[in-house]
Amino acid sequence: MADGPAQVVKLFYCYARVDKVLRDELDTHLTPLKRSGLITIWYDGELIPGARWEDEIHARLNTADIILLLISPAFMASDYCYSKEMTQAIARHDAGKACVIPILLRSVFWKGTPFSKLQMLPEDTKAVISWHDRDEAFLNVTEGIHRSIVEFTAKARSRGTAIVQSIVTPKEQKNDVTDNRTGRKKSPSPRSIQTSIPPYVDNLSDDSDIERQVYTVLDIGTAYAKAMIIEIHGDQAEVLGVGRYPQSYRHMSDGIIIDIPGVIENCNEALLRAEKAAGGIIAPSTIMGIANVQVKGSSTTVGRQRSNPTKPIIPEELDALIASAQQFLLSNTRERILAETGYQNTELRLMNTAINSIRIDGLTVNNPIGLRGNQFELTLFSAFAPLTQLGVLETVAQGLDLMLVTIVAEPYALARCLGTNDSGAIFIDIGAGTTNIALVRQGGIEEIWIFPQGGRTFTRRIATSKGISIRDAERFKVSYSKGEIKGSEREEFRAILAPECQTWMDIVALIIEELAKGEFLPPAIYVMGGGSRLIDICDQLENFPWTEQLPFVSQPIIRIVQPEMVANIEDTHGLLIDTQDITPMTLAYQAIELQNQNSVLGKALDRVISNMHL
Measured between alpha carbons, how far is residue 390 from residues 194, 386, 393, 581 in Å? Predict the structure, then answer.
């Protein structure tokens, strides 16, 4: 459980130029910490031409939270590194203003130096280049840095040090705008990702005693931040206002927030537009979506032979079965993340969970309590995400003065909203940074999968092939998708995009094969997201030999999902215009489910989640 907003820690490299290759390798290993929003890093390679380099380095070093000394013979021999940078770093460390971490890149005599009193990395002070596997050495260093970040932020929080200044400064610079927009005091930081915060209740009419239950839905996409203001009426959600604002390449990467202040500003603009469209309605209670490659979701079936089949099933039996399934899925997710990243101790948070089915002696039932039988089994789906990723979204919500009700895995939201048909379907959401796939069979979510390839992959291919800017390449891609580019120029674009489209299709086919697990797949594939507007992607899906390569009984129906196809979401003002609006609509559906979760199974899930501290 997060104690407050995620902290962004500023790292600074002190290193000798001859060690740049090793510095670059370490920087690559620190990428997960940067992508999770835990750190920002500065080094002299980021100096702007014409800048007073020594003044800039001094200023950066003087504001860094953690300073990495990359120790080597060249570092020790450099008067600038040793006498200036290191001296300033040690002084700030001794004053408690920064944490200095020496990292031994190459073997050198370092006894008696000012940094010899500090704990050095890697472990056992074995130089990085002396390790048999250099990746293992840098993994050891990264884990040590991560521990220091956690300790540093905890100490900063306990003494009230505002090391999140780099996050909140842009918002503070627009205090008048934000205060005028919300008209309310800053909300307290959310206690947990999934909470029991009620929807904002607004008496908007002086002539009515009816309380209106309104939510904000926030879809922080790689290309656009999208906000919706909705009102719940029973099992329907009415769209009151919609706002969109473009994201920059420096703000998001493959569905991951890499510039928190920038994303907060973009989301604020989207919220302003949504609230204006809603007639000035403000809804602090917020549902957020998340879709990046470290979000994992799968299902499992567990069962037990009851010792006394004539005895009615009691809630404790149901809870025990759910707990068994949750523990298996949690362990399985940890193993998957370990295999993909090499990190053993990733702290995970349960995001979404649903009971797909319950069976007693093979008969499917909705509520097992009080029933009798011999074999009792259930199938459970759960989605998990690293705590660091969720902490970033908590920070964004706090920066926007929003109360975070829940964070939802976007593929899960798609499947819950659209996957009501008993025959099931495969859902493919092609965003700008990622493609999300969800498999639904017999009305239950079986698995979700996210991979880092989306619309911007095709944009980069155009930019590289034609030698133009990303901005121009995006403009050309949109024109091409709309059919505005004709003749030989269109054929040129088709040839440029063909390799990326084929790669994307190959990955999709491999993932669906993995999801199938040898069983027959459902007869329909529903596609949505901005990337689905690219005709080449649709052609790949239509022409793929599905029945030859995958366990489909017949060629599946391929259908692009449009807003009017989404049930339970009322858009009377026509604010939702195309397939890229589907994801926020499915997040809105989660608000409906939150209002109707007090079932026997829902309460059982809540008990188990609470007891397991998930």
Answer: 11, 7, 5, 23
